[in-house]
Amino acid sequence: MALALTATACEPGHGGAGGVSRPPGRTGDSLADRLSRLGIDVDHWRDGGWRDWDRWSGAAEDFVNPVIAGLWQPDRMRSADAAGKTVPARDALAHRQLSDPPPPLAEAVPERTPYREYAAPMGKLFFDSPGGSLVCSGTVVRDVYHPGKSNLVWTAGHCVHAGRSGGWYRNIAFVPAFNDLGRSEAGLADATEREVAPYGLWWADRAATSEQWIRNGSETGGAGAAYDYAVLRVRPESGGRSLEETVGTALPVDFSAPPVSEVGPVSVWGYPAAPPYDGLTMFRCVDRPRRLSLGPELPTMYRVGCPLTGGASGGGWFRRVGDRLELVSNTSIGPVDGAWLAGPRLGGDAKRVYDTMGARYGGR
Questions:
Q1: Which end of the chain is more exposed for a tag (fewer CB within 10 A), N or C?
Q2: What is the pLDDT of residue 295?
Q3: Domain 3-361 is found in CATH 3.30.2350.10
Q4: Which residues of the chain form beta strands (DSSP E)?
């Protein structure tokens, strides 16, 4: 049976292979400096120059994402797609001796509304690719370098960068608690701006993903899935408070990479957009992870029987520690039939990506 690895949302690719994380740009660079080095005029960019994909670079210092006020209107958000990634067969990518059998299917449950009361740190990511506008999911995470004032969003690497086949995506923006009341498409036709984006629109002005992803990311995942994570630093399209202050909370990240035998049950959140879902409703499911190995030289991933589809990529996986939730993974890959999802274990490489954003850029 043919499968599609939903990187679970983006058109050009998701992968990586091993090594150190890669910082985005040079310390102290302004947006104007970065644009100038690329020979880009900011006014031309905002007037549509961003559509020139012939100038698509994978170099880490080439991430530029000027705010284009009014670009992400509700109609454009609703038209953004999720796209699949294909592999030959259901478990053809799994290393048999190191992987557990595929998990049984768990139940996907719509999150309670309003989302700002029950799942405020979770949200939807919008971005442009050469193939059109796409979507992923993301989570507001704590910034230990700037307590209480985090501007950091955790997502999947393939939601910000195409890997070896391309470069950074453009017009990346995050909407916490998107579609706060969980309205249908018809219901959103007359929804207020606050109902669509209760905390506003947040533009990424810095991005970091793994060196492994940038160097080896591919459309079918493969080795890259084990390093498929990213951190964005965002700023509001308007307003002055930090993302954490605006949303009211941010979730901690666990970089201990607990083995499957110790991680316990996890809750998986996201905005699935490929059928049978429409990308407008936040869903969650709970399952106990099993092992998925893509090769003996790669870190083992977590795999759960969660049926979320394209668009859920980058959504957080959380385990409960005492009275709080901790992010332990994010959605990376899964078959097109929604039989399971897999996410990377977050260890030293993931922490270096996080430290790049928090220590170097987080509070600016």
A1: N
A2: 86
A3: no
A4: 3-5, 21-22, 85-87, 109-110, 122-129, 132-141, 152-155, 170-176, 202-210, 230-236, 266-270, 283-287, 290-292, 301-304, 316-321, 324-330, 341-343
